[in-house]
């Protein structure tokens, strides 16, 4: 087994996850099999109970693992299925044995050989990302002199373990890629066009890395500009890294260009040389990635989606990548990472439809009547965004804040024939709205929001726990069977009889009310294996009104968008009928973009993951579906 370790220095948020994923893409394009491990040095055992404000979204794996969003990047870029053990945390390690550095090394070696691409046997290369920042520079209060800092203190056991691990596996089996910042500064008092590229932060970071027992083989330098040869020579001289092994990760229009940047600068040659794989690998074939990146850059015809929720808000830098008009209604303002997989799934689908994605973030509380009285301008702005969208999406979430606004958004979509996709809570919201507005059940509610409601159309699952929050939900891959074969969802999934999608919820539609709902016109087209748990809803007379209890965004891929997100985008731009009429074989490929490929057994990726027993949380069904109990 060969190992590539990706670390980060100077500041956080440089894109270690995208860099690690892109390295995997290039190595995979060279004909190598690749797996990934993410190390998160926090004390939580997993990301399940961490605030989206602090940590971004919780990504859910097939085996029910609640993990860091970087594992979502790995799965999307490499088209693999990871396990909960591919995410190492301090909390998991501390649960096992007192010899922490030994436990970390053993964990890495054990997980690295687990196949994640549906093939037999271990991968050729394991890409490991170490979370946190190494070798930052801090300053004393008295004289502002630079003092070298080890970085995030919680990372220290992992840094020591990885130093030992590099010696343990030996030369030719370990390559360290250090991602660092090379800032570009305008020269004070001179012409605005004059800029200077500063290498000192990276020099300090590499010095700190060496002091901790890790020697970088390759430098990946994040910078606004392409580094010239003089800068590379300076970095080479002071960081002791060959100039040919210094890679520029400059700003690009979209992240699908990152693997191309690595290929163009021969990063694969540098990695293969360190790992003694030059005679094994071929030249990378990234034609599909090139076509997809160029297609994304060339799109101009927008489709507008409103996203309604509580984690709404999107930076201008992110908007430069996404352009198709979708209203997203939520309640978590100011953090796009909270819905990262949803945004990626929207992007995958919009590129497949050759449309430019524009996401309008609609704070759900701003749609409510109380906001109209307290902040009329915010209320008016939110409704203008919602009414101006081509489609509406209500993502998953927890808690009762902003629920009324989401209900109003679902009502607007239903009454005005605007394409609607409700995910998890978004489906439950649609059911509540239908009960109140169509069935005239004014007290209809979820017991999550009103435990004493007289009309509980959404209830707590019998097997759930109301006292323990972590790991007690219905998690991971579960099977949904289609009970209505000519529905839009089934057609989008390629007329499959069932699909396996990932779940994360505690509440469900009340099965005792299903007959009343269907009599009133709401169709439950997908159910679990018992037929008592509702998974997919549709309004047959609506252009596209779909709600799902699962999270389809977690299995969307750049070349194979989620079927239901594809349906939302296609309906929003008037393409749904033509997509539904196409035979599955004619849908792939289109300029390097693939529509959902569903295999006869209903699995989108063509294989069933069989979990290896973990050291923690190790209860699994023995049905081969990787379902966590």
Q: Explain this structure to me?
A:
The radius of gyration is 25 Å and the shape is globular. The chain has 629 residues and is of the alpha/beta class. Helix 5 packs across helix 6 (156-169). It is 31% helix and 21% strand. Strands 14, 15, 16, 17, 18, 21, 22, 24, 25 and 26 form a 10-stranded mixed beta sheet that branches. Strands 5-2-6-1-9-12-13 form a 7-stranded parallel beta sheet, with helices on both faces. A 3-stranded mixed beta sheet has the order 19-20-23, covered by helices on one side.
Quick tags:
629 residues, alpha/beta, 7-stranded parallel sheet, 26 strands, globular, disordered C terminus, identical protein binding, ATP-binding, pyrimidine biosynthesis, GATASE
**E-strand count:** 26
Output mean pLDDT: 84
Number of helices: 21
- Percentage of residues assigned to helices: 25-40%
Q: How would you characterize the largest beta sheet?
A: 10 strands, mixed
Distance between the termini: 32 Å
Question: What would you call the structural class?
Answer: alpha/beta
Question: How large is the radius of gyration?
Answer: 25 Å
Enzyme class: ligase
EC number: 6.3.4.2
Domain CTP synthase N-terminal: 2-277
Pathway: Pyrimidine metabolism; CTP biosynthesis via de novo pathway; CTP from UDP: step 2/2
